[in-house]
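Following up on my earlier thread - several people asked me to post the actual chain instead of describing it. Fair enough. Here it is, all 251 residues.
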Amino acid sequence: MASNDDKRQRKQRAEAMRKERESAARRRRNGITVAIVVVVLALIVAAGFSIKYYTDQNNAPAAVPTGLTDDNGVVFDQETSTGESAAGADPISVVLYEDFQCPACKALFDVQGAYIKEQVDNGTISVEYRPIAILDRASDGYSTRASAASVCVAEDAGAKAFHEFHNLLYANQPPEGGTGLPEDQVVSYAEEVGADAAAACIEDGTYEKWAEEATSAASVDGISGTPTVLVDGKLVENPTVELETAVAAAG
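Reply from S.P.:
Thanks for posting it. Predicted structure:
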C-alpha cells in the first residue's frame, strides 16, 4: 500500500508535468505569434519598398526625345523633305496637333496629305507635327504608344523618316475600341522608314511618359481635340476642307 509520501510525490510529479506541458504550449504559441509578427512586418516593409519604387518611378522626370521643338513638335520642311532649301520668303508656318488613333486626323491625312507634302516640297509651308494622345480610352493606350513611337523614329532617323512613319500609321490606322496596332507591326514600320535603331525605344516605351506630358501641355495651351491646325498662328476651323484656303490667305 502506497504511503502518503509516495502519493504526495506522484501528485507533485503530475503537477510538474502539467506545468511543463502548459509551459511548452505557451512557448509554441509565443513562437507562432512571433513568426506571424515577423512575416507581417516583412510584408509591410516589402510593400513599403514597392510603393516607394513605384512612386519614384511615377515621379521621375520623363525622358525627353532629342530634336524636337520647345512645344514638343517635329518640324517637316523643304530642306528636310527634299534636301534643298530655296531662297526667298520664309515658309508659312503650319502647326498640326494630331492623335494617331483619331479618325478625323486620318481623314485630314487622306484628303490633304498629298497637298501638304507638295507645299512643303516647294517651300510654301513648313509643318510642325505635335503628336498627342487624347484617345487612350478608345484604344487601350495605343494613342500614347503611337505618339511615343513616332518620336522614337524622329530621334533615330530624323523628321523625314518621322513623316513617312506618320503616313504609315494613318494608312494602317486601327479601329477605335481595339488594342491598336501590335508592337511588332509598329516596329516594322519604323524599320521600313529606316529607323532600325528605334525598335528598342518603341519596345521599352521610352517616351510614353513624355507623350502623356506633351498631351497635358497641349491641354494647358487650350488644345481639346484633334486635329487642331494653326496656319500662320490662326486656327483653321475645318482643316480637312479649309486648309488650302487658309494657306492661300496666309500667303
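The chain has two domains: 1-60, 74-250. That should answer part of your original question.
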